[in-house]
Design brief:
mainly alpha, 14 helices
């Protein structure tokens, strides 16, 4: 009996490592050229130029050119980069709150949209457009409900922005990737091994059963519970390694994966990303509640749209 358990556990380890390494290598090949291209765009000043063009339009959601620059930086890179940009600017507490919510919804769009495309979305471009639209719409609402004198203590260290040479940009990019990719490998392999163990020993239901009612409220299938936990704690880049396997194996239906992707687009990496902004002095209510509301609204709108289309398709058949 004990020997059989060891054999099954070893099988989980081997399968998890193989699946994790395959997904990690795919992510590396995809992320290297994308992140390098973004670094070059930043050095060339393209992102800053675009932010100046967009400033008049973004004034309707309470942001000036500095807020637009921060948002654009996050959409192409990460929340860490956006916070770094904030440290060189003079954004007030109200603007930082709006930008924080926007960047929590729409960040690292190029990489994460490719990941979401492989994990069940019909279109990576469509998911990127959804996230941008919802980020701007949420900011528009916040700009109308937050008081004009909305303030607080912002724990953000300010530093002067300096011009970096191309060599410095290249070194920063290379060091970032060198630190990131080993961490990604460890996380992705660990997740895949854990998933294999949970399924092999029928433990996954103990994790997902208590989440069934929450999933229904969100408009998601009960089968999405484990993936929802992974995506909300570890984010899309790491969580996709598990989600891709679930979709490609058929254990989760593509329709359910699309709905989960739409929900996670608003709320993924709730633990890490939210805490980053919370440590800067922003309130958890504004960082969490607007995104959860938008996620629920998006999923239920998609479900109602599907039912409406199905009803239209069945109508001619009934009339015949």
């Amino acid at each position: 009996m004990q020997q059989a358990l060891k054999f099954r556990a070893l099988g989980c380890l081997v399968q998890g490592v193989q699946a994790g390494v395959r997904t990690w290598w795919w992510l590396v090949k995809m992320m290297l050229p994308i992140t390098f291209g973004v670094a070059v765009l930043q050095w060339l000043g393209v992102i800053g130029t675009i932010s100046r063009w967009l400033t008049p339009a973004f004034s309707y959601i309470g942001l000036d050119g500095e807020g637009v620059l921060t948002f654009l930086t996050a959409t192409l890179t990460s929340i860490y980069a956006a916070i770094g940009v904030m440290g060189t600017l003079n954004l007030d507490f109200r603007s930082v709150t709006i930008v924080a919510v926007m960047t929590l919804i729409a960040h690292n769009l190029i990489v994460e949209s490719v990941v979401q495309r492989r994990s069940g979305c019909r279109s990576g471009w469509g998911m990127a457009a959804l996230r941008l639209t919802m980020a701007i719409f949420t900011a528009w609402i916040l700009n109308r409900i937050l008081p004009a004198d909305f303030t607080g203590r912002l724990l953000l260290e300010h530093r002067e922005a300096g011009e970096l040479s191309f060599g410095a940009i290249l070194r920063n990019w290379a060091l970032t990737q060198a630190r990131l990719f080993p961490l990604m490998l460890a996380m992705i392999v660990s997740l895949n091994v854990l998933q294999q163990i949970l399924r092999e020993f029928s433990l996954i239901d103990y994790l997902t059963a208590p989440m069934a009612s929450v999933m229904r409220f969100f408009g998601l299938s009960r089968d999405c519970a484990f993936l929802w936990i992974v995506l909300n704690t570890l984010g899309l880049a790491y969580g996709a390694s598990v989600m891709i396997g679930e979709v490609e194996s058929g254990r989760i239906a593509r329709r359910d994966a699309r709905l989960l992707n739409a929900h996670a687009a608003m709320t993924h990496s709730t633990l890490e990303d939210t805490l980053l902004y919370f440590t800067l002095g922003l309130g958890l209510f504004w960082l969490l509640v607007p995104r959860v509301i938008m996620a629920i609204a998006v999923v239920w709108t998609m479900r109602l749209s599907e039912r409406w289309r199905s009803a239209r398709e069945l109508r001619p058949v009934r009339e015949q």
